[in-house]
Amino acid sequence: MTQANIQGARETLLDVFGFADFRGGQEAVVERVIAGRSTAAIFATGAGKSLCYQLPALHLPHLTLVVSPLLALMQDQLAFLQRHGVAAASLDSTQDRDTVREIMERARRGELKILMVSVERLKNERFRHFLRQVAISLLVIDEAHCISEWGHNFRPDYLKLPDYQREFGIPQALLLTATATPAVIDDMRAKFAIAEDDVVTTGFYRNNLELLVQPVETDSRLPALVEWLAPQRAPQQQSSTIIYVTLQQTAESVAKALANQGFAARAYHAGLDSETRDRIQQGFMEGEIPCIVATIAFGMGIDKGDIRNVIHYDLPKSIENYSQEIGRAGRDGKPSRCLMLAGRDGLRVLENFVYGDAPEREGIRHVLGEIADAGRQPARQWPVLLNALSRDSNVRLLPLKTLLVRLEMHGVIAPRFAYLAEYRLRYLDETADLVARFEGERADFVRLLIDNIAIARTWGTVDFERLHQAGAAAGIDASRSRVIAALEYFQDKGWVVLEGKRMTDVYEVRQPEFDIDALADRLLAESQSREQAEIDRLQAMLDLFESETCLTRRLAAYFGDTRFKHGGAPADRSQAAQGCGHCSVCHGHVARLPGAPPLPELTDADFTRQAGPFIERHREQLGTLPGAQRIAHFLCGLSMPVFTPLKARQLNGFGVHEQRPYPDVRAWIEERMAQPG
C-alpha cells in the first residue's frame, strides 16, 4: 500500500471513527485489505476486529458484504456505523418486504458501502439474483472459525462461502475471529487461499485480566458467589458484572437469589421476549443494571469497556467459549477479574448436549435412500426441504446440515441451486392497468400470469407448473426464472406485494450408485469421531482449570500465542519467568474440581416406570419399538424430531436422567433390552 493510502486510512480513522491511532494489529489488516489482498485477522475478544473491515470499506470502490452468524452482532455493528455516518444496512428475518426492497435498491444505486447478512440469506434465490447485479469489493466473514469443522461451533453453511465468493466474483475476502487454534487457522487459510503472511494475530494474552479458578461444591456455589460479590453490594460500589450460567432456569434462580441479597441483578436468556432482552441489555450498557446473570445468549457483540467482572457459575462449553466470554472484561485496559466457580457437576449436561446431536444410523440410512432414489431419475436432481427431511429422517437440523456437507465432501452430492418452493402475491394495482403497461408478447405474458394465478380473497399462490403448461399451450415463455424475474420487477415498481417461503435446496446426485449400508456405517463413524472430539474438547477445558502451571500461559498456548515460549515469560518480559503473575495458579492456588454428587443406582423398576410410557406410545403411534439411542435421548431430555408428533415431552419420564452421563444411561438401557422378556 502506498504512503498516500496509509495516510488516507489514518485520516479516515480520525475523521470518521474518532480514533487517534490504530490498536494492536488493526493497521496491518487495514493495509492488506486496502491493497487488495485476502486477509485473516485473529484478534482477541475486544481487540477491535470490526474496524478492520469498517475502515477499508470506505476506501474500496464497491460494496463490502459482511456475513455474520448472529442478528445481535449485526445490529450492534450497524448501530456503531450509523452513529459515525457510514452508509451501512443489514438484511434480517425481522424486516418487512418494503424495508428489504428499499435496502436492496440502495445497494443497487451504490448508496451503501456496507451490507450485513446472515449466511443463510446467501441461499435465497432472490437475494442471489440481487447479488449478481451489484459490484462487490470485499467479502467479510465474521466469526470465521465457523468455517472449520475443527472449530468449536462449526456451521455447515459456512463451508459454502468460498464457493459464494467465486460465484459472485468477489475479488478478496477478510476473515475475522477471536477464537481460532492453529489447526483452525490453517483450515481457514486453505479454504480462501490466504497467504501465511496475510494472517494477522494479536495474541490472546491480556495483562489486565486476573484469571481465577475457585473449586466449589454444588450446594456451596451460590453462597460462594454472594461472598465473592459482597464488597460491591453497596450501590456506589457495584461494578459491571456478567455471570454466565448454562440453563435458563439457573439464570432466573441465581438472579432472584442475588436480588434478595441486595444486589441489582437481572436474568438474561433466550426464553425472554426480545423487548425484555433489549431493555435489560440497554440497562446494562448504560450502567443502570450493574449485574447480568446470563446464558451465552448474552454478550456477542457487546462493546462495553468497563466490565470489571466475568464470572462462570457453570462450566463454559469449551476453552473457546471461555476465551470469548472472559474477553468481554476489561476492554478499557483496566484491571478486571474473571472467576470460575468450578465443579464437575455441570459436565454431564454439557456432555449430554454433545451426545444429543448424534444421528441414528437409520436416520442416516433414510437420507441415503432418498439420494439413491433421486440418482435413479434422469435429471439426477434431489430437492431438499430441510425441515421435512429432518422430520422424516429423525435427524436434528444442525447434524442434518453437517451430514449433507459430509456427503458433498465425499462427492456423493453437489449443491446446484436453491429456490423458494412457494410464492404468493397481492395486487396493489388493478390487473387491467398492469397489463396496459406492456405491449405485444410482454403484455400477453403478463395477462397469462394474471389469468393463471388464482386469487383467494386478496392473496394468490403462484403455481409454476400451471404457468409453464399454460405458456407452452400459448407459445409464451413462462419458465420459472422468467416468472420470478417478472414478479420481482412488479414488486420493485410497487405494483404487487410478493412473499416467498419454504426454501428448497437442489442437489445433483454425482454418485448414483453407492452401497447405502457401507456409506451409512462410514458416516456414522465420522459422526462418532466428531462426537468424541467434542468430548475431548470438554476434557481439555477441565485440564485448563486444573492446570498446575500458569492459567494465562496455558490459555495462550492453546491458541498458538507465541508470546509465551518454552515455559518462559511473555515476550515483553514484564511478568515473572514462569507465568503471568495474575492468575490463581501464580497466586499459589492450584484447583482440584469437586466431582458431581453420586446418584442412586438404576434398577429394572426404574426402566419400566420411566421408559415404559414412551415405549408404549412409540409402539402405538409408529408401530415399532424405539431403539436404545432413542430411549436414552428421551430419558436424558435430549430432543429429536420424532418427539414432536409423539408429544414425548409431556410424558413424565422425559429428562428424568438429564444429570446422568448419557453413555451410562444408554448402556443401562441396552442391558435391560437384552434381557429375555
TrEMBL record:
Enzyme class of the recorded protein, top EC level: isomerase
Residue intervals of the Helicase C-terminal domain: 221-390
InterPro entries the UniProt entry points to: DEAD/DEAH_box_helicase_dom, DNA/RNA_helicase_DEAH_CS, DNA_helicase_ATP-dep_RecQ, Helicase_ATP-bd, Helicase_C-like, P-loop_NTPase, RecQ_Zn-bd, WH-like_DNA-bd_sf
Family annotation (CDD domains): DEXHc_RecQ4-like (cd18018)
Lineage top rank: taxon: Bacteria
Coiled-coil portions: none
Pfam families: DEAD, Helicase_C, RecQ_Zn_bind
EC number: 5.6.2.4
Ranges for domain Helicase ATP-binding: 30-198
UniProt keyword annotations, A-Z: ATP-binding, DNA-binding, Helicase, Hydrolase, Isomerase, Metal-binding, Nucleotide-binding
Family: Belongs to the helicase family. RecQ subfamily.
Protein name: ATP-dependent DNA helicase RecQ
